[in-house]
Amino acid sequence: MVDTQRNDDEILINENITAKQVRLIDANNENRGIVSIKEALAIADEAGLDLIEISPQANPPVCKVLDFGKYRYEQQKRKNEAKKNQKVVEIKELKLRPVIETHDYEVKLKQAKKFLEQGNKVKFTMRFKGRELSANDLGKQILSQIVEDLDMCSKVDSEAKLEGRQMTMILAPQKA
Question: Domain check: are 30 and 54 in the same one?
Fold first, then answer.
């Protein structure tokens, strides 16, 4: 039986529970109702298990009689399962120039479509060299053409904006 407080997201156990009364769930998962903390500790001690504060924000707090090691293991398993099920959205970057040829444009468009279908965001970076910067409306025109061509499978996450010698725009996949 563990008698000290473990600092796993402030889980209080045994004597560290500060409430005077608790709603107790015993080792058989039966609700014992509201009991004093001393009585709850005696029940946990009798079962040879720990008294763990499950829901501290409830009034009175909900405590359960079970093995603390097993409880921590279950919590970790749930956390790992949730992490496994979440989708990490990546940002794929495609670099363009304002003097891009038609075929190169179509290749970039095809790549962007593939990335968007995989559920990733796509960042278009239009790079300007030399005097091209003075005609940045050409770059804006190409980026707006991309938005128009990909409007069936994407939405604009970040509008085209000029930062130094490059213009960036981010497209996100559309929700089905």
Answer: yes
